[in-house]
Amino acid sequence: MSVILAHNNYGKSKVRMVKVARHGDRHDLQEINVDIACEGDFETAHTLGDNSKVLPTDTMKNTVYALAKQVSDIEEIEAFALRLKDHFLNHNPQLSRITIEIDESMWTRILVGGKSHHHSFTKGGDEKHTTKVIATRDMVTIESGISDLLILKTTGSGFSGFIKDQYTTLPETTDRIFATVVKASWLYAKPEVATRTTWQGVRQLLLETFALHNSFSVQQTLYAMGENILENFADISEISLSLPNKHCLLVNLSAFGMENNNEIFVPTDEPHGLIEARLSRD
Amino acid sequence: MSVILAHNNYGKSKVRMVKVARHGDRHDLQEINVDIACEGDFETAHTLGDNSKVLPTDTMKNTVYALAKQVSDIEEIEAFALRLKDHFLNHNPQLSRITIEIDESMWTRILVGGKSHHHSFTKGGDEKHTTKVIATRDMVTIESGISDLLILKTTGSGFSGFIKDQYTTLPETTDRIFATVVKASWLYAKPEVATRTTWQGVRQLLLETFALHNSFSVQQTLYAMGENILENFADISEISLSLPNKHCLLVNLSAFGMENNNEIFVPTDEPHGLIEARLSRD
Amino acid sequence: MSVILAHNNYGKSKVRMVKVARHGDRHDLQEINVDIACEGDFETAHTLGDNSKVLPTDTMKNTVYALAKQVSDIEEIEAFALRLKDHFLNHNPQLSRITIEIDESMWTRILVGGKSHHHSFTKGGDEKHTTKVIATRDMVTIESGISDLLILKTTGSGFSGFIKDQYTTLPETTDRIFATVVKASWLYAKPEVATRTTWQGVRQLLLETFALHNSFSVQQTLYAMGENILENFADISEISLSLPNKHCLLVNLSAFGMENNNEIFVPTDEPHGLIEARLSRD
Amino acid sequence: MSVILAHNNYGKSKVRMVKVARHGDRHDLQEINVDIACEGDFETAHTLGDNSKVLPTDTMKNTVYALAKQVSDIEEIEAFALRLKDHFLNHNPQLSRITIEIDESMWTRILVGGKSHHHSFTKGGDEKHTTKVIATRDMVTIESGISDLLILKTTGSGFSGFIKDQYTTLPETTDRIFATVVKASWLYAKPEVATRTTWQGVRQLLLETFALHNSFSVQQTLYAMGENILENFADISEISLSLPNKHCLLVNLSAFGMENNNEIFVPTDEPHGLIEARLSRD
Question: What is the mean pLDDT of residues B257-271?
């Protein structure tokens, strides 16, 4: 019998970095997390223990810090990911493909006397700006996105007209809470359009669509969100959305002689619906 | 030999609730988590399995939902905790002491076209407004606070002049990152002063003090934060602060011929310094 | 412009269940977690809010419990996943493809006086037996595996002969700790060979290979583990392994006049190497 | 107004260590986590930024590693904690009180061909052996324990005869699942009796009592567990137990025409009952 190495990748994950750009009138702050995964000619590393083509993952970590230092200002994560992939591909002929994933946390300046402070910040929650750069020697794609953005609307959402079978107990409703943790990522048509301005525009339109949409289902709202992005951002060629349904269960207060008019809910983490789709242009 | 029940408490933890106040011009939203712990005459429950004085923790959970429903508007967590303790003490003569802890998450309205939306929200991170009400039949105390508030300053912090012994390797520094996750709680001199306005004032002054303080140590900044609160809020009788030192380590780039002028750091979660103190009035 | 729904799936995640088989001489216990994802004819749900073909995820949850009840004894998770996919495909013509993932936690009987107790158990850690059944109306595959199995060897592992570049600082070593959290999954050649006996045999051989292998790299040990499985289990057609390198860093004690002969280490979670491969038959 | 420093402590938390004792016939492995908290004469550090009496928490971390190296074999965590407190109190006259907390993870040898392997291990879950040493210059106490030990019994547990009020919906039951995560700690009458043999004996008796007890409530079982320890271990002067009630909810299958004879349950994490008590000798 013969065994073959059908696929392999290796790299460094969770390379965390805080970068400070020390301007006179202000310090700028960036906190990122970098994951690197390499593919290439690593057959003999696996089969023979021959490490002569293996760039250590520890060196990948060092490279993140050294290349970050080469640009003194804060750099957009898409640009940094492109520089990292260039470095690794240029210096490592054994690589055929590399994936660089970066996520950036949100920090906001502390207000002192109503004015943004020079060098002090608070972290704005779990939401992250993400990017994933995949490159070979012939192509590169950039897929940026948002993760861990928790949103909720208290009305404007229903769910009815669904299939009923012998195991159905869910009542139909025309008014429920809709809560979800947005994970969205979109593919840029070409690398140079991957700007922070676009990212912020997409984020805002996703939020507005969620707020304004009269939802018949998570599926329908997800589609509306994605469709709006594709219709308004010509440089985005496809968008993926993953929306867990963070159910808020209406508490039954009838045993206590009370009517619960969509006021008192139990938020739950599990089980949860999970609705996912990818929309693209025709 | 004789065994005695030196202490006991029981109750329900992690009772989660989302409450919606459905006003015409807007929906208000509140997400809280309630922990209840009861002490009292429960000796025979432990020793004999006699449950005749045991209010089930499931009933405590139901009570949280029922009492929340009794107030149609969003209620401050301190007021809700007081109502809960009143209910349990009034209806349960076997109780001698009760502790109600509530934490409230932060939600902010989604902006649509620059205006706050009627019923759609985003969650603002891990920061929580906390309160702890402890009551017997003769007294009640309210200790409110903040937890999980991550703050960072990129300069204005040093650490030097400390003890050196045979195991010291830490270099002195006059410029380092100072990052911490604030856990603060303060005791109100009397229940009626526990208002949201005070809470917001304390939060703002803690942030401003952190931003403006020229720090020689976490200890000194912690003290300055607490001292400022006691000096500016006459209704607060003591304050406790717990500040983990979330070390951001300066990356050594000298091996790559680079000088790291406090620009590139590795944020770490462990190990971490932990500095805690309680300040009170003389 | 026209938008198309390039891909979509929906279902229920984290459906948790504890099942008890109440035999006279013993109770058997099973704790599982089920994730269900459906694909099919859901275009109008997304585009029109038409739910007439949507089986609610709440019903999927109910179905898990109802179908579990139909088999009174504890059932292997592969068999249960197959029954679930049969049910959903048979009753839902709008489905074209379904994925059922189940993981099972490890529980062991408490020993009382040296004998296994009739109905009392302790949980044996985070390790899980996993399975993933993917089915259309024409095919079905079963990929079972192990997750969260933390293993460590204190010697028999080195890493040298690797590429050195301007960012390399890692020293070569012929003796280091090798710690990893095994995530392995293997594809059965046909559904009927997916037995618990095979699963236990694979688990044992993975552990033995890890223990006995003289490792030149994580890559090489990963390959040896996978190769051994394919060579010894004819019914397995491919195996995927994901091995994070949970680095245990040698503490530098030289500043204290001490030599650290691979005795004192700092275990770290981040950053970590991540080595992944899939091996198949030629 | 005058502010006073009512209490303060500082130290290092989450100092992780893996220690290997390299014997010829086997390697022994220990993974621990150390938390250190110091109290003493630190007023001027807080009020003046005077660090001349401050032993850096970084030095505390180094001291853990250096002192671990001084004992070549694996050391019981109680003995190591005592050595650490001696070191810090002896070398730091400004300290008045120190708390050393250590928890140790469970590792077991991999079996190869039925025999324990020389140097390869698997981690046995989340359960930890804990100890907490508190010392001043005049006294020392050792409180050891267990944390994160998840146990479950499928019968032999009921809950009835409790108070019913207007918010009660819980039905009485004579047969339910009882699941909890044991957190137990016991105070040794004197330091020299804090041995591993005693620890293992306590652990086993806690498990056996849980298994054999016919439970009318968590309170009663908790008491039986504690009472058994005090009656059988003369060197233990008090024991604290914290037992969250990890409710396993019986699934209502009646809507599907099925009777659920305590077979199908949903395990839940929240909300959970929390029952705590401390038992001591008269």
Answer: 97
CB-based contact C6 A53, cutoff 8 Å: no
- What are chain D's partners, defined as 3 or more CB pairs within 8 angstroms? A, B, C
- Domain containing C122 — which CATH number? 3.10.270.10
D156 and D129, same domain (yes or no): no
pLDDT above 80 (res A232): yes
Mutate to test the interface with C, among A58, A91, A99, A170 (most CBs of C within 10 A): A58
Quick one: pLDDT at residue C125? Answer: 85
The verdict on B226 touching D (C-beta cutoff 8 Å) is: yes
Q: How far is A117 from chain D (nearest CA, A)?
A: 23
Q: How many domains does chain D have?
A: 2
Q: In this structure, is residue C8 part of a structural domain?
A: no
Label each residue of chain C as H, E or C: CCEEEEEEEEEEECEEEEEEEECCCCEEEEEEEEEEEEEECCHHHHHHCCCCCCCCHHHHHHHHHHHHHHCCCCCCHHHHHHHHHHHHHHHCCCEEEEEEEEEEEEEEEEEECCEEEEEEEEEEEEEEEEEEEEEECCCEEEEEEEEEEEEEECCCECECCCCCCCCCCCCCECCCCEEEEEEEEEEECCHHHCCHHHHHHHHHHHHHHHHHCCECCHHHHHHHHHHHHHHHCCCEEEEEEEEEECCEEECCCHHHCCCCCCCEEEECCCCEEEEEEEEEEC
D247 is catalytic: yes
Q: What confidence tens digit (pLDDT) does each residue in B221-238 have?
A: 999 999 999 999 999 999
In 3-state terms chain B splits into helix, strand, coil percentages (rounded to 5) of: 25, 45, 30
State how far Cα D230 lies from the chain centre: 17
- Evaluate if residue D253 carries a pLDDT over 90: yes
Catalytic residue among D12, D128, D183, D213: D12
Q: Do residues D154 and D276 share a domain?
A: yes
D256 at A interface, C-beta within 8 A: yes
pLDDT of residue D282: 86
Our CA dihedral for C188, C189, C195, C196, rounded to 10 degrees, sits at -30
Choose among D125, D152, D153: nearest Cβ to C126: D125
User: Are D134 and D198 in a shared domain?
Assistant: no
Which residues neighbour A261 within 8 Å (Cβ) at sequence distance 6 or greater? B22
Provide the residue range defining the domain that includes D179: 149-280
Question: Do residues A105 and A169 share a domain?
Answer: no
Q: Which stretch of A123-127, B29-33, C71-75, D266-270 has the lowest confidence by average pLDDT?
A: A123-127
In this structure, the answer to whether residues A76 and A23 fall within a common structural domain is yes
Chain A CB contacts of B268 below 8 Å: 16
> What is residue C1's predicted lDDT score, i.e. its pLDDT?
62
Number of Cβ within a 10 Å radius of residue C44: 15
Nearest to B256 among C167, C255, C256 (CB): C167
Q: What percent of chain C has pLDDT over 70?
A: 100
Q: Is B159 on the interface with D (CB under 8 A)?
A: yes
Mean pLDDT calculated for residue range D158-170:
98
Q: Which of C57, C154, C195, C198 is catalytic?
A: C57
- The reply to whether B173 and B264 lie within a common domain is yes
Q: How far apart are CA A113 and CA B1, in angstroms?
A: 65
Of A12, A48, A273, the CB nearest to C271: A12
Written as six digits, the tokens of A22 are 């020390």
Mean pLDDT of A230-243: 98
Minimum-distance CB partner of B217 among D49, D59, D92: D49
The verdict on a CB contact (< 8 Å) between C238 and A56 is no
Q: Is C180 a catalytic residue?
A: no
pLDDT of amino acid D1: 62
pTM above 0.90, yes or no: yes
ipTM of the complex as predicted:
0.96
Within this chain, do residues B228 and B172 fall inside the same structural domain, yes or no? yes
